[in-house]
Amino acid sequence: MPKKKKSKRSPKGALIKEASRPIPIDLILDPVFRQDFHNEIRGAAGVYILYKGRNVYYVGHSNKLFWALHSKTRNKHKNKWNKFAFFRVNNVRFLKDLKSLLIDAALPPGNEVSSRFYRAGDLTRAIQKFSEARRKTANKIVIAMGKSR
Asked: Cβ neighbours of residue 25 under 8 Å, at least 6 residues apart?
């Protein structure tokens, strides 16, 4: 009897549980939609993006997505965005990293504080270090070639 092959499970959905496309703010301000939306994502954790037109205005994360989005219609970000999208995550442990990644990629003007990754994981210093070493080597070659003329 032949052995049954184990099916490989796709890693899709391991981080992002659900996602939305940009949704107009008018819907979250509508009482009927707001109630249905609240019921749908009650207790959901994730990352959300606020848009001004097609541009990313702000990136945030929350253990309570609905209330985070609702509060952005009433605080200092009020009237500075007109659409939102959200991503529900399976593991809240990755919320801050996911938010940091999106902030670094989009550089939204509404986020006053830049993202922070684990310092040892910052490759920028390593790149600067070997880039400087290459520059010094190139300068030595140029100097050596200049002397040989």
From this structure: 73, 81, 82, 83, 84
Would you list the domain boundaries of the chain? 16-117, 118-149
Tell me how far apart the terminal alpha carbons of the chain are, to the nearest angstrom: 79
The model's pLDDT over 85-117, given as tens digits with 9 standing for 90+, comes to: 999 998 899 899 899 889 988 999 999 877 666
Nearest to 41 by CA among 98, 100, 107, 85: 85
Q: Tell me the per-residue pLDDT of 7-60, one tens digit each, with 9 for 90 and over.
A: 677 777 788 999 999 999 998 889 999 999 999 998 899 999 999 999 999 999
CB-count exposure of residue 54 (10 Å: 0-12, 13-18, 19+)? exposed
Residue with tokens 């310092």: 119
Sequence-ordered strand ranges (E) for the chain = 16-19, 23-24, 46-52, 55-62, 83-89
* Architecture of the domain made up of 16-117: 3-Layer(aba) Sandwich (3.40)
